[in-house]
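1st attempt posting a full record on here, be nice pls
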Amino acid sequence: MSRFSKQLCKQLVTLARQGRGSYKTVADRSRIAERFSERLSELNIQIRDVKHIKTSHIEKYIESRKADSLSLRTLQNEMSAIRSVLLSAGRNKLADPSHINLSNQALGISGANRDGTKLPITDEKLNAVVSFAQRKDEGVALAVQLSRYLGLRTEETVQSAKSLKTWRQALINNHERVRVVFGTKGGRPRETTVFNREKVLSILDKAISYVSEHNGKLIDKPSLHTAIDRYRNIVREAGMNGKNAPHSLRYAYS
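the predicted structure (as tokens):
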């Protein structure tokens, strides 16, 4: 990343943290702000201040993200985060959701709803993803399986290393549910039902063994957001995008 890009990134992340929302919302917005800056640099758009961001820069960013085969919901969330950052910077015109060139409709990312945008992953697809991930990163392969059989969201999955032993003990004690504490939406702990006890115990045993040899982490990266990016990049390479995006693991949870 160039010096200009680093300056822009620092500024955008600072602005992202000024917006409202839960801890998770702010963290997600900060990660999107960082990605936005990095992608502009990759697109050879060299600017160092938010005041230099143009309509065309945002249009090019969204087009490049479309090429990553992301769902409409994900693209809408990214655009929402960018608008929040622009609003914090006083760029009210660009932040306007009804902007003639930057509305969701103008950008070609409107029309999604929360129902039917993703499908439950099939067992065949799951096996293919796990097999691919094992060749890249065994921790990611284990994370995919935990997400599938415990119905975990991405951030919950990445942070699950802290709970593995607790979950295993709960199952050994014949509990039907385990408590998810880390990475939950809004920071609110929740419980999830274990439908396939023996399968989950087997995965937990492997995950606990793996974590003990990898700095206490399921995905051995220096920060949460780099671990999440590592997870998402590998599963995307394995073909989990669009209707088969990571959330399809939760759709198949049963």
